[in-house]
């Protein structure tokens, strides 16, 4: 199959006017100008006309479990207060509610042109009840042992057993955060991830209250966790980042979510720290009113930065376009091309999939989207970032997805 469009954004060099890709099975087998691709390849052409064809977008951090909580939790004065609110909602949720949330999340993400999702799944035991997802999905088994012990081997077995043979994507591990996960569980998760070559993610330095808890041994998050019986001997000495770095677990396989609250000392530590990946969630960040994200400083230190939506308990939608626009507001010096990189090539690298995802390139998997485009090709990245409609055309693993 040959797919032609007025403009082709490959994320490899300049956009191509009157471009095309050829797809065989689930792979891209040719990329270039339409006359060249047409001459070199047999098969039918789907002419998308006045559109731009680009790689499918990648959401590097979300929790589809909570899609149904959209609009239910108002911004709280305290981060610990928000945790209390979401825990209260979760107490009423049944397995069927979670399954509905996950299905709605996939449908919505597809409407916004997301073809790959990194989903932190708190209930991996639900996987056998989930139909084959329409999108390429990494299921990160989320683990918390602040209230009850967790065996990483059991979570890994559940993920492996539940991941359907006909599903696209993979599995990973997600020890939730320093304040909910013991040192022992972090260490075991790192070992299992290394053993099985899995991506691994965690929340770190998200809020001022997390900083106050670990550095000062005080604040609402400290008090809440102390009240539920968490041992607090790791608090009152050092910053969250310093504490996790001390454990020497982080490496290039880790995707660290947030890193909003960092001290000058933390930035010095990051200079020689392993270059893990960082995922920023611009609209969830605004919802919580976190400390401004030091994007340029982190980029200058050599960190790969990608974007996520986080869950709809702190966001309005699963649109990665809206995340790019939110980030453009707070970081006006970022080019539209750099924004698109964060939801394509950078996110593919974070998942360890830089050789097969994030670009329209020969040998890559055939994940692409098309958006209406009638403007000047020199402004194509601007128009991509500004796109605020339903994405009319998606290709996931070489198959067209009906976006209903
Ligand atoms: Zn999260």
Question: Can I get a quick summary?
Answer:
The protein is α/β, with parallel strands linked by helices. 34% of the residues lie in helices and 22% in strands.
CATH superfamily of the largest domain: Metal-dependent hydrolases
Percentage beta strand = 15-25%
**Second rung of CATH, namely the architecture of the largest domain:** Alpha-Beta Barrel
CATH class term of the largest domain: Alpha Beta
- Whole-number average pLDDT? 96
Q: Count the DSSP helices.
A: 15
CATH topology of the largest domain: TIM Barrel
Would you count the extended β strands for me?
Answer: 16
SS content category: alpha/beta
Protein architecture, described:
With about 400 residues, the protein is of the alpha/beta class. The protein has two domains: about 1-55 and about 360-400, Urease, subunit C, domain 1 (Roll), CATH 2.30.40.10; about 55-350, TIM Barrel. About 35% of the residues lie in helices and about 20% in strands. It has 15 helices and 16 strands. Helix 4 (about 150-160) links the parallel strand 8 (about 135-145) and strand 9. The longest helix is centred in the first third of the chain and has 17 residues, at about 95-110. The radius of gyration is 21 Å and the shape is globular. The two termini are about 25 Å apart. The mean pLDDT is about 95. The structure holds zinc ion (ZN). Zinc ion (ZN) binds near residues 61, 63 and 203.
In terms of topology, how is this protein built?
Elements: E1 2-8, E2 16-24, E3 27-33, H1 34-40, E4 45-47, E5 51-55, E6 57-62, H2 79-91, H3 95-111, E7 114-121, E8 136-143, H4 152-162, E9 169-175, H5 183-195, E10 200-204, H6 208-216, H7 220-227, H8 240-246, E11 254-258, H9 264-272, E12 277-280, H10 282-288, H11 295-300, E13 304-307, H12 320-330, H13 336-342, H14 345-350, E14 368-372, H15 380-386, E15 393-396, E16 399-401
Parallel strand pairs: 1-4, 1-5, 6-7, 7-8, 8-9, 10-11, 11-12, 12-13
Antiparallel strand pairs: 1-2, 2-3, 5-14, 14-15, 15-16
Bound molecules: zinc ion.
Zinc ion binds at residues 61, 63, 203, 257, 310.
């Amino acid at each position: 199959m040959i797919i032609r469009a007025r403009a082709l954004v490959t994320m490899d060099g300049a956009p191509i006017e009157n471009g095309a890709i050829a797809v065989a099975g689930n792979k891209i087998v040719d990329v270039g100008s339409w006359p060249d691709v047409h001459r070199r390849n047999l098969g039918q052409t789907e002419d998308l006309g006045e559109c731009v064809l680009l790689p499918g977008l990648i959401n590097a951090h979300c929790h589809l479990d909570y899609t149904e909580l959209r609009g239910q939790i108002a911004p709280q004065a305290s981060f610990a207060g928000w945790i209390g609110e979401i825990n209260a909602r979760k107490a009423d949720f049944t397995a069927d509610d979670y399954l509905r949330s996950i299905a709605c999340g996939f449908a919505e993400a597809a409407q916004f042109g997301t073809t790959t999702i990194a989903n932190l799944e708190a209930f991996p035991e639900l996987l056998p009840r989930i139909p084959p997802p329409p999108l390429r999905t990494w299921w990160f088994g989320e683990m918390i042992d602040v209230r009850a012990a967790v065996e990483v081997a059991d979570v890994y077995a559940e993920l492996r057993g539940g991941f359907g043979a006909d599903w696209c994507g993979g599995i990973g591990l997600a020890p939730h955060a320093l304040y909910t996960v013991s040192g022992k569980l972090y260490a075991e998760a790192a070992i299992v991830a290394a053993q099985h070559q899995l991506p691994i993610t965690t929340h770190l330095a998200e809020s001022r209250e997390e900083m106050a808890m670990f550095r000062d041994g005080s604040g609402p998050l400290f008090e809440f966790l102390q009240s539920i019986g968490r041992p607090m001997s790791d608090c009152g000495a050092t910053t969250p980042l310093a504490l996790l770095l001390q454990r020497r677990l982080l490496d290039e396989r880790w995707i660290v979510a947030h890193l909003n609250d960092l001290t000058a000392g933390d930035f010095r530590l990051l200079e020689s720290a392993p270059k893990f990946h960082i995922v920023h969630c611009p609209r969830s960040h605004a919802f919580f009113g976190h400390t401004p994200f030091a994007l340029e400083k982190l980029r200058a230190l050599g960190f790969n930065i990608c974007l996520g939506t986080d869950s709809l308990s702190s966001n309005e939608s699963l649109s990665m376009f809206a995340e790019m626009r939110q980030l453009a507001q707070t970081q006006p010096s970022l080019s539209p091309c750099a924004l698109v990189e964060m939801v394509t090539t950078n996110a593919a690298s974070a998942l360890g999939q830089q050789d097969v995802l994030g670009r329209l390139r020969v040998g890559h998997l055939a994940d692409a989207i098309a958006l209406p485009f009638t403007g000047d090709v020199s402004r194509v990245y601007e128009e991509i970032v500004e796109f605020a409609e339903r994405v009319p055309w998606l290709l996931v693993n070489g198959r067209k997805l009906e976006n209903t």
